[in-house]
Amino acid sequence: xxxxxxxxxxxxxxxxxxxxxxxxxxxxxxxxxxxxxxxxxxxxxxxxxxxxxxxxxxxxxxxxxxxxxxxxxxxxxxxxxxxxxxxxxxxxxxxxxxxxxxxxxxxxxxxxxxxxxxxxxxxxxxxxxxxxxxxxxxxxxxxxxxxxxxxxxxxxxxxxxxxxxxxxxxxxxxxxxxxxxxxxxxxxxxxxxxxxxxxxxxxxxxxxxxxxxxxxxxxxxxxxxxxxxxxxxxxxxxxxxxxxxxxxxxxxxxxxxxxxxxxxxxxxxxxxxxxxxxxxxxxxxxxxxxxxxxxxxxxxxxxx
Length: 304
What we know:
The protein is α+β, with helices and mostly antiparallel strands. The chain has helices spanning 2-8, 27-33, 52-68, 85-121, 158-198, 211-227, 233-246, 251-256, 258-281; strands at residues 9-17, 22-24, 42-44, 70-71, 78-81, 139-145. It is globular.
């Protein structure tokens, strides 16, 4: 499985930075308010809502990336199936464009926001808190890494090599468990949401069934085969049944056709029972992974 995985996937690191727009208050200021050992404070340099559109782009980018990749036990890295690389690349490029568009809008507001802060902060205002080149405080970039077992080449002693190889094997085991758990839980969430929306309220009234519910589960089903790197046959069988149930079905037809709504509710209800149990049955082993499991450049090489 390890060698197959090296050919089927790589690692992705998305790095973003955003000016915080706040600063810790000077201890002398806090002493005037109370005991600075017990009381800490920050001051907003601008209206916090001004930065929200920028943070929203980053949040959307990470969510889209997660929907098309798999979790990895090293913080900051995700596992990307080879078949998803082009899609993720296009997706991140779009988010990067949106990100810098929002930065441009923020730059246009920057001086005005700074002057409003001068009025609101009074004596707490300081020109030194505000970067002259504010654009340099932001960033949006990503890079890919190949995945491979630690090699014997380089400076590794036999003892270190054996230790690193064992750590790598443990990491691959946890990667498999994390990936299977993530795919099962995502599927359970989608199915559960549809079943809940197709179930009448206690007062007997039908619930609102939005188009996005079908769109979201369809998006999951469309990329499932590419993301199922660890061949979860049990989940694959349930996914196949879900595909058959909603094949060619539109949200409008579900809302308008009572028989179809009942049929989908029953079918998805059975799948929900099975996937809920499948989530419970997953192993819950927790492996602590060294955040730097490789010890040479050859072991984790940048490929893009």
